[in-house]
Design goal:
Elements (H helix, E strand, L loop, with lengths): L1 H52 L4 H25 L10 H10 L9 H19 L16 H11 L3 H15 L4 H17 L5 H7 L6 H31 L10 E2 L15 H4 L11 H6 L4 H14 L7 H6 L16 E4 L6 E4 L6 H19 L13 H15 L2 H6 L10 H33 L8 H13 L1 E2 L15 H4 L5 H20 L21 H11 L7 H9 L7 H20 L16
Parallel strand pairs: 1-4
Antiparallel strand pairs: 2-3
Helix pairs in contact: 1-2, 2-4, 4-7, 5-6, 9-17, 9-23, 12-14, 14-15, 15-20, 17-18, 17-20, 17-23, 20-21, 20-23, 21-22
Length: 617
């Protein structure tokens, strides 16, 4: 009897195994079909989003929201179908990963009425941001100045504190404050969606994309490693601004007045390099005037970016890109979102960029950054829909920035004929490293606070009555900056940054600014452009243009899309599996040594006293 029982058990297990194998085969076929359906729906939804973002009208908004709502219904049906499969037990790691990723339903989990309301709330905040118009400081009858290009150009170039204060206040009052009620509802619906997806809150949803329970702690540790260099840059910039504007405008020990830093959000300070660079007698590397003199156009800037990728042996952008992209601000008077963005339409070779490009050095670098997204889209477009994304959101941002680091070097700008008669010596090198730090190092605490702020709101850690001052407290704590005028809880300033109005997770940019230096260092070593310890081949003047070997590293990683966890993608690029700030420290080490000595010599205060620029209403 025992023998017969064992035989029966084995036979039963064999039948179960056969049934399981059959189910997995069926599940694999299901995945093939559902990926095709999801890609088709994503294409329709993206077309509608593109139409709205490039021409903000009520009708385009209505169509976009209707299509998005229909797609959400479809995703809900997919979520129900997934429950029919016992996918956690399947033998194929790939099939299990696809099911796991498809099970993330995002906002579509919301009831129809809530989802429709969320779309309306987000559209309204984006529309409000895009439609901000400000009166001219010197001509109150001229009230058609938009953020891009008029206000940004003034913030970048003006050195009049009162003029800058005026534009800062006008913009924040119109781009941020009116959104408070909508933003509160957005947070409520974000939280409801997270909980319906079995997450505690929206912060955990965003962090889950990085597939590591310790990711937040890792970032804190990396930031602490980088903070000493930031503090040195901050102290030096405040010292130089104090010399330029005087004690009445810039304190020797307090937070930096953010309206003086050349950027509406004080996220990067390179626009004021002309008044704070270490060696003002040495010309800064800025080829904007030369670009204009040589007749550069937005089209030419993108063609040169495409040429860079082709020089690495990577993909040429398809004709659809040139036919369908918006590379200059239309002159037909329409409202559109001018914020530079790259778009994947989920059909073969339909990729686009929307950017109100101006002929400047900074925009030249931005063009390369956006083309990095395009290259990623093209490299993984053979993957099933569920894998058509970056290894993590930060990887997508980092790719183009690696090229931007290379393109911004004196070596590359000389190569393309934009930089002439450049004399390379130690002072010029410190100037160039400092300029890069004003973009890269300064950005890190800013990027961290954009999501730390929203995490706190999503987690319910801040009372609504303190939402505005909580934002400025974080900006002060991490960046040492403050608004030019006193803000209260009658104001609401965080959504005056596009990504907060548009519900775009910002951690991706912080991760990108860290990991791009890891990519860059490895690519430079592979290209033979950086030899550690050899002063003739420094990391900060490495140009990987033309290196097919470096291009192969990119191809290895980009073609994977999201098919593997991000440490696997990083390993495919350079053999490493952890994110680290060591490459940043290596890149900026000469600047750190110089700054510390210079700040000590000038008795510069490091750190900052508390700000009094946000008070209860």
């Amino acid at each position: 009897m025992k023998f017969l029982s064992v035989v029966a058990l084995v036979a039963g297990l064999a039948i179960c195994h056969a049934a399981a194998v059959k189910e997995e085969i069926i599940a694999t076929e299901y995945l093939q079909n559902i990926n095709k359906a999801l890609a088709k729906n994503a294409n329709v939804e993206t077309e509608a989003s593109w139409a709205y973002a490039s021409n903000i009208t009520d009708e385009n908004e209505r169509v976009k929201n209707e299509i998005s709502a229909e797609n959400a219904k479809f995703k809900k049906e997919v979520a129900k179908d997934l429950l029919k499969f016992n996918w956690q037990t399947y033998s194929s790691a790939d099939v299990k990963r696809q099911f796991k990723m498809l099970s993330k339903t995002g906002y579509s989990v919301l009831p129809e009425a809530d989802y429709a309301e969320l779309l309306e709330v987000k559209s309204w905040m984006m529309s409000n941001f895009a439609k901000v118009r400000v009166c001219d400081y010197k001509d109150s009858m001229k009230c058609d100045l938009s953020l891009d290009p008029e206000i940004e150009e003034i913030i970048t170039k003006s050195r009049d504190p009162e003029e800058l204060k005026y534009y800062w206040t006008e913009f924040y009052d119109k781009a941020g404050t009116p959104t408070r009620q909508a933003f509160e509802r957005y947070v409520e619906l974000n939280t409801k969606s997270a909980q319906l997806n079995n997450f505690a809150n929206g912060a955990e949803v965003w962090l889950n994309e990085y597939e590591d329970d310790t990711f937040e702690e890792q970032l804190e540790a990396i930031f602490e490693d980088i903070k000493p260099l930031y503090d040195q840059v901050h102290g030096y910039v405040r010292h130089r601004l104090n010399q330029y504007y005087g004690d009445e405008v810039v304190s020797k020990t307090g937070p930096l007045p953010m309206h003086l830093l050349g950027n509406m959000w004080a996220q990067q300070w390179s626009a004021i390099a002309d008044i704070v660079s270490p060696f003002p007698d040495k010309p800064l590397v800025d080829v904007s005037d030369e670009m204009v003199a040589q007749g550069y156009t937005p089209l030419k800037m993108f063609e040169m970016g495409d040429d860079f990728f082709q020089s690495l042996g990577l993909k040429k952008v398809p004709q659809d890109f040139w036919d369908k992209s918006i590379l200059e601000k239309p002159d037909d008077g329409r409202d559109l979102v001018c914020h530079a963005s790259a778009w994947d339409f989920y059909v073969t070779d339909d990729v686009r960029i929307k950017q109100c490009t101006r002929v400047t050095q900074d925009q030249f670098f931005t063009a390369h950054h956006e083309l990095g997204h395009i290259q990623y889209f093209l490299q993984y477009q053979h993957q099933p829909f569920v894998y058509r994304g970056g290894a993590n959101p930060g990887f997508h941002e980092a790719v183009g920035d690696v090229l931007s680091l290379s393109v911004s070097t004196p070596k590359h700008l000389e190569r393309v004929g934009l930089l002439k008669n450049y004399v390379s010596d130690e002072e010029a090198r410190i100037n160039q490293l400092f300029l890069t730090a004003l973009d890269k190092i300064v950005f890190l605490p800013f990027a961290f606070t954009m999501d730390k702020y929203r995490w706190a709101l999503f987690r319910g850690e801040v009372d609504k009555s303190e939402w505005n001052c909580a934002f400025w407290k974080l900006r002060e704590e991490y960046s040492g900056i403050e608004p030019p005028v006193v803000r209260t809880e009658n104001d609401f300033d965080a959504p005056a940054k596009y990504h907060l109005s548009a519900d775009v997770e910002y951690l991706r940019y912080l991760v990108s600014f860290i990991i791009q230096f890891q990519f860059y260092k490895s690519a430079c070593i592979t290209a033979g452009e950086y030899i550690p310890g050899n002063p003739d081949y420094p990391l900060d003047n490495c140009d990987i243009y033309g290196s097919k070997e470096a291009g192969k590293l990119f191809e290895n990683m980009l073609s994977m899309g999201a098919s593997k966890p991000w440490p696997d993608a990083l390993e495919a690029f350079n053999g490493e599996r952890t994110m680290t700030g060591k490459a940043i420290a290596e890149y900026f080490e000469p600047l750190r040594v110089w700054l510390e000595a210079e700040n000590i010599k000038n008795n510069v205060h490091i750190g900052w006293t508390k700000s009094d620029k946000c008070v209860a209403a």
